[in-house]
Every structure is written in structure tokens, then in C-alpha cells.
Design a protein that fits this description.
Layout: H1 2-21, H2 69-77, E1 105-111, E2 117-122, H3 125-137, E3 150-151, E4 155-159, H4 162-168, E5 176-179, E6 192-194, E7 201-203
Antiparallel strand pairs: 1-2, 2-4, 3-4, 3-5, 5-7, 6-7
Length: about 210
């Protein structure tokens, strides 16, 4: 009787091991919808599978925070000329200071060649994005659906120079463009993450 009991136990264990090896619970067998050994070849959020775009979105909280006008200027100067900041524009080529109190802007500055780059320190980022979207909805932000202010967590910047804009959106800067145009549809591989306001996105795609 003891020998018969041992044979029964061995048979049961063998059957169990065979079932597990074949993916009986679906946890290891890709054909059964289980784990396939990583993300190789699986499309990632905000991009493809070749590493040309981030594997996961960083969103607004992943943007750089300047803390001050000097901090924002230093960050910008790492990618386009902004070594001297003026509180007032001193050139006709400098962009107009169109973002004011309704955008929660507390300070503005100009830098770069002929002050072509503007910087706006922002107290309330959501208020800024809300005001910007309202301007877009009213048609007061131009017809270029592939443009907008480049933003960090507490500042916004923009330039009359296409080269400066492209440099500021380089992957190393960490900055992204705020786009609230309904017709915005960037090519594949570019980031398009939700902003703080519905109808707006954060993107690294820009076209003048």
C-alpha cells in the first residue's frame, strides 16, 4: 500500500510540472497572453520601438524649473545665446510682451541677439496655459498650428529666431512646447503629452 501511495504522489507531481512548463496558468506563455520576457518590439508611449522617442511621458512635472529669471536665462543660454538679460526690450526685433497679468506672468526679460528671445516667469502654470488656450480659441495666436511658447514648470520662452526655437526643443534641454491648436498633428515619433489644460499638449515638434 505504501509503494502504491508513493507511485500516485510521483505521478501527480510529474503532471503538475508538465502543466506548468507548458504555461498552464498563462503567466509565461506569450500565446496565452502572458509575460513575453520584456518590452522588446512593443510600441512604447509617445514613440516607436527604436529609441527615437521617450519610452514613457514625463509630462509637466518632468519639465525644468528655473526658480528665477537668472535661472531661466542660464538654462536657455545652454542651448541658444542668452548671456545678458534685459527687463525691457531695446530693439524693434524683440518680440512683443504679449503675456501679462492674465497669464500669471510676474516678470519678463529679453536676451539673445537684438533681444530676439523673451522669457516670462510664471506664478501659476495652469493659469498661463488656460489664458494661452483662450487666445488660441479666439484666433489671436496666428495660423501656425505647429507653434507655441516653449515652457518649463515656472517660465515660458520664445524667440523670433527659428534656430533658437529648434535649439531650445533639443532633447537635452528638457523643455517642451505648449500647443493648444485643435488641428495639431505632429509626425510619428514626436512627443504629444497632455498639458495641464484640456485641449493643450506638450510636444517637442516645432515648424515655423
Amino acid at each position: 500500500m505504501r509503494i502504491k501511495s508513493m507511485i500516485t504522489t510521483v505521478t501527480a507531481v510529474t503532471a503538475l510540472l508538465t502543466l506548468t512548463a507548458c504555461g498552464g496558468d498563462g503567466s509565461e506563455n506569450p500565446a496565452l497572453g502572458g509575460i513575453s520576457g520584456g518590452n522588446e518590439g512593443v510600441p512604447q508611449k509617445n514613440g516607436g520601438v527604436d529609441g527615437s522617442a521617450p519610452k514613457s511621458g514625463t509630462g509637466f512635472k518632468g519639465l525644468p524649473k528655473a526658480g528665477s529669471m537668472a535661472g531661466a536665462a542660464r538654462l536657455i543660454n545652454g542651448f541658444t545665446k542668452c548671456d545678458q538679460v534685459s527687463p525691457e526690450k531695446n530693439s524693434s526685433e524683440a518680440p512683443d510682451a504679449k503675456y501679462g497679468a492674465t497669464f500669471s506672468v510676474t516678470e519678463r526679460g529679453y536676451c539673445g541677439r537684438r533681444n530676439a528671445t523673451s522669457i516670462f516667469m510664471i506664478k501659476d502654470a495652469k493659469a498661463f496655459q488656460t489664458a494661452y488656450k483662450a487666445e488660441v480659441d479666439k484666433g489671436e495666436e496666428g495660423k501656425n498650428v505647429n507653434s507655441g511658447p516653449i515652457i518649463g514648470q515656472d517660465f515660458a520662452t520664445g524667440s523670433e529666431s527659428e534656430e533658437a526655437m529648434s535649439a531650445l526643443l533639443s532633447p537635452q534641454s528638457g523643455l517642451l512646447m505648449l500647443n493648444c491648436h485643435a488641428g495639431f498633428n505632429p509626425p510619428s515619433g514626436y512627443r504629444k503629452e497632455p498639458a495641464l489644460v484640456k485641449g493643450c499638449v506638450l510636444t517637442d515638434y516645432y515648424k515655423d
